[in-house]
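Q: Predict the bound structure with glutathione.
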Amino acid sequence: MFRSGAIWAVAALAVVGSVSAAYAGPTLDAVKKADVLKCGVNTGLGGFSIADSTGKWTGLDADVCRAIAAVALGDANKVKFVPLSAQQRFTALQNGEIDVLSRNSTWTLQRDTKLGLNFTNVTFYDGQGFMVPKKLNVKSAKELNGATICVQTGTTTELNLADYFRANSMQFKPVVIEQQQEVLGAFFAGRCDVYTTDRSGLASTLKNDAPNGGADYMVLPEIISKEPLGPAVRQGDEQWTDIVKYSVYALIQAEESGITQANVEDLAKTSKDPAVQGLLGTPNAEGKTSGNGEALGVDEAWAVRAIKAAGNYSEIYDRNIKPLGLERGINALWSQGGLMYSPPLR
Ligand SMILES: N[C@@H](CCC(=O)N[C@@H](CS)C(=O)NCC(=O)O)C(=O)O
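A: Predicted complex:
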């Protein structure tokens, strides 16, 4: 018994050994050849991805693009931001117009399977809500029977809305529009009583797009769905999936390990903490590095560059999402009662 177990162990090791050298997948090759990461983003959603008048993109999703470019290409600035509507985004990814989608997109079973995509992580745990003009004098979504509701095409929002009203035996009149700016135009012009989207989208709209600084509008208390938002890639290139996945996990682990944009280079040289050394590719006391970079098919300083690109998850959150008035809540680290958790990066 022992003998045959030992033989199996040797055989298993041989197999593991033979696949341990990371292969170069087609997406990383293509990204390197183009020397730019084509990253699908929102057409303009403050806090997530929005371009200023000089064409500079900011936001959590834009920072994720930068972290991936830093890992894959060694330069956080080598990103071509491709703005996409809700309706266009998955086709653009399927067609190869973009290498990764980082655009407030909800991870759902059918997007992750039937659409031929892989969601890699959750970068923001969200949920759908409703915004109404204060003058409507409504305090709860349960009072919205018969309301006219503005919603964007090609979203989970559209589907949840129908489910919620059906489940509560209420009627509504949908005004379904493809372009975000037109949805908001219709709502603020009073063509709909209600605007519905992810609560982060409502917070962003209230702060950035609503007339009068949002003073005449309010968000109702109900959260009617789960909207785990995160990056997606095409199925079929496991290496690229892993690169995107661990680029994001490096940012989350960096927060947990106290690694910041400002101290990452220093810690890469001086830290004696094995977890930090492992993540940052620093040789340990025996002169050995963790080998994470090799396993991903990049170099060992990959995570240093990801963190240097935009900061750790809390830095990214505080810079982009906090100004929308959204506290960390369930987006806090697991060790602080939230859901943000990186697997061991070893
Ligand atoms: N998370 C939802 C909704 C995403 C979505 O597209 N939301 C709208 C409203 S906040 C949006 O971002 N529109 C901006 C655009 O079309 O560029 C989904 O994945 O379907």
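A: The mean pLDDT is 94.
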